[in-house]
Amino acid sequence: MTTWEYRRVYGAADVHFRGIFEWGLLYKETEISKEEKDGRKHNSQPFRSPTHAGGLFAIDKKWFAELGYYDSGLQIWGGEQYELSFKIWMCGGGILFVPCSHVGHVYRNHMPYGFGKLTGKPVISTNMVRVVKTWMDEYEKYYYIREPQARHRNPGDISEQLALRKNLQCKSFDWFMKKVAYDVPKSYPLLPDNDVWGEGKNPKTSKCIDT
């Protein structure tokens, strides 16, 4: 039976989780660290989060405009939560999760819209590459190690995004990883370089290896 009952996604109400990511840029959450817990005076106090799930947030309109809103080069959906999260932290802001603010998400059993001319295209992967190339600096390689096919995606012109980053005097992604997202490598260590790239194919049977 379908109801409007509110269900928590992560654990009990007194255990708090913050948004992180794995190197393929899949959104994850992890229990707040000791560093975050030690800085809180009560359980309802907001706490810092490196990223958010996308679309479920409140932001000052003037600040959102100063950040350039969402990157207009991102298509349909996918990657916007990282683009905005990285931009907020690296360009002088911060993201707080508020325990006393409850947001419910009603999932449909079908998608009520199509992708139009982009149907069948790697929209999400292409969006991710655009975000990676704009914000992740030398950490860009870890995304490609995790998602090697993305190396061939064309993210389009990112010159405006790079200019925005320069004009706002944004910090480096290394700063973000060490000062904000320090707990990401604890759950998802930096990946070793791939020994080889490409498809694995048996020359006798012409069959490819898949995992």
Automatic annotation (TrEMBL):
GO terms for cellular component: Golgi apparatus. Its cofactor is Mn(2+). The keyword Glycosyltransferase applies. The keyword Signal does not apply. GO terms for biological process: protein O-linked glycosylation. Pathway: Protein modification; protein glycosylation. It comes from the Eukaryota. Keywords: Disulfide bond, Glycosyltransferase, Manganese, Metal-binding, Transferase. This is Galactosyltransferase C-terminal domain-containing protein. Residues 44-107 form the Galactosyltransferase C-terminal domain. GO terms for molecular function: metal ion binding; polypeptide N-acetylgalactosaminyltransferase activity.
